[in-house]
Write a structure and sequence with these properties.
Elements (H helix, E strand, L loop, with lengths): L1 E4 L6 E4 L10 E4 L3 E4 L14 E4 L2 E5 L3 E3 L2 E3 L2 E4 L16 H4 L2 E2 L17 E4 L17 H4 L7 E6 L3 E8 L2 E5 L3 E3 L7 H14 L13 H9 L1 H12 L3 E8 L14 E9 L4 E2 L2 H13 L11 E2 L22 H11 L12 E6 L6 E5 L1 H6 L3
Parallel strand pairs: 17-19
Antiparallel strand pairs: 1-2, 3-9, 4-6, 4-10, 5-6, 7-8, 11-15, 12-20, 13-14, 13-16, 14-15, 16-17, 17-18, 20-21
Amino acid sequence: MVTITMKENSWQCVIKKGEMQVGDRILYLEIDSAIPAKDKRFAFLADAGCTRTMNGKRVYRLRTVKRKKQISQGLALPLTDFPEFANCKSGYDVTEKLGVTIYDRQPPRVGRFGFLMGRAAGKFPGFIRKTDQERIQSMPRSLLERIQDHPFEITIKMDGTSCSMYYNNGKFGVCSRNLELRDPNIRDPFFVRVWNRIKKVFGYDSRPSHFIDNSVYWDMEKRYGIRDRLTEYCKATGRNLALQGEICGPGIQANRENLDQRGYFIFDIWDINNQWYLLSDERKRVVEALNQVTLRQHIVSPLECVPELQEVQRDKVPEYPLDYLEGIDAAIPDILAMADGRGLCCERREGLVFKSKKDANFSFKVISNAYLLKNEL
């Protein structure tokens, strides 16, 4: 076995000795790829324990593993096995043609007819950018070379399920990563009739008619009073905003954050009118202003942002945390090492998120390899 490093990015992958030579063209798929099991060229992955079910279909999921004491991330195969890409340039995205998608760890069921996420009201709104940070290993060198020029806000990457809540021209909405979710307080008469029929036939008389509407996402809105807070703030300022955060706690991703109760941790605010993210200082000011809004309902919890790195470690984090790095090739291992450490309430965090304090479009995430190996991700 030998370890190879991709020329176009910084991923490392272990392959059989002699399988490929330096300079050979290869097909590479990153970790968290979901490969359709129907493609026979990937059938060998079934013997490696990669088979999963996603959206009712069999897929092969790629994850971080150790081979011969070396970390291997992703899958590298000779391009000669894929003649359809023989004439493609280096860096060509093969995922669409191969049907490869990102593996989605779906929220767990809470019953035969219900989901924690609730019922969909429609697709994710097009006026909000979806939450997704690029991994540092996937960044092209042209972006990596910019790292030393930026002061960064470094926050703990929380392991949960992402949730966006928005106010846009008088409308408030709650979204999962891919869907807008129906307000459980608004009853669909047709659906209630169907549910009541199900109760009568199957004997679920002890369950309320709104059982299927249970939603951890809307539960967070209620706990923090986000609808009232965001509505009042946006009306007063003439803005349209979307809060984006991570819901963590019991029943979500095995509660790897080790929290006593579920919480909503804001990591971004999207300015809908201007179509950009707020910089870290303005984001904190908006969250503080939202917490000052007087609510007419019961006492709710104050909104909070994801914790910054200096909140969970003793050593002071400099404003330019990466200015000591000597060259990009040396930078990657050092930055990956920074990802290891304590989380908010757990001994081993998922990783870190780096966001430039002067360019809201320049950010990336660094996932801890120790975390990936421990949780078999």
